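#structure-requests
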Amino acid sequence: MLLCLMLSMIPTVILGTFSMVKCRELLYRQEEVFVNNTLEQTNQSLEYFLFLYSNAMNSLVWDKSIQNAVNKEYTSNYERFLAKSEVFDVRIPMVSNINADVLQVTIYTDTNMYPYGNRIAALEDIQNESWYKQAITTYSPFFVRKPGSDNFLMICGIPNTSYKNVIVITLTGEKILNTCKTLFDTDYAVGIYDQKGQIFFKYVDLETEYRQKLFFRPLLNEMLEKTDKATFACWDSSDNEFGWSTIIIRPYQKIIAKANSLLGVVAGIIFLCILQVFFLGNTFTSHIVTPLEKLTENLDHIDVNNFEVTVKSTYNDEIAHLIAAFKVMAERLQGTINELYVNRIMKQEYRFQMLQAQINPHFLYNCLSMINGKAIRAEQPEIARTALLLSTF
């Protein structure tokens, strides 16, 4: 039974382990292909939005009428009115109408233009913002996440002016950010970094001690270097022309969770194999081992002159032939022993008869000689003569 169990379980365990390892590798490769495709689509979408938004910003920044409107000292309200009605009320709404994601366009200027709704504001309103210094010195659009919301700001300074002017476009991140939030069902994290490596967007759906470290780039790199690769799977892509990068992180155990579900199947198969081996073991035992044990008992009985063969087999196999041969041998041995025993008894009887035949005349001769002696002492010559003649005969 143990031999059958061992011979059957070894290949089963090896094949089960091999299938589990290959299944995990296959799932990881599928996940890798899927994530890479997702990254490519996300980058294409991100690049499209960045390109679209940058064009919208450049259409305002390099507009000569806007540059002229924010590069003069106004001497009357009429001049201000003309600038609002002919420039700002015309150019700014065009951007909002063409791009549905544009929520608001505001020009911050240090000229003496009066604030006008959400379109014109004083430059001093943004002097306390962390991005203010970059805004007044940079004439290329850059993006900043608006705190407390999914919206973000696209900011750019207006060149070729004597005054400091900054255009700020408030954009909704609903389309691209919601796309990032629905890449997977659960257990993943996604982060978008700008060209300077600053986190622009992050979404984390992980229950892990590394949750707070995932999207601080230096900490993320340090974590991935120190952490076993079997803990996290990380994919990074930065192949868009703006230099932005997207990172997707998934726990390795979540990727191979489907493979782990096969453990139950493998365990079930092993259990079925054990039952089958148990059944086959019992069959082999009753078919091979039990007859051999009984045959061994019959061999032991021969030592005590018991030649009865009690083992039987209804099969036509080697065991049955062995039992039949043993039965014939036992019968022949019993016949031989019986024959030898009878011959021995007959030989003993014959010898006894010979001895008896030797003893009878001698005893009779002694008796007659004693009679002869007694007759002579009794002076009976005729009796003595008769006994002598009889003993001589």
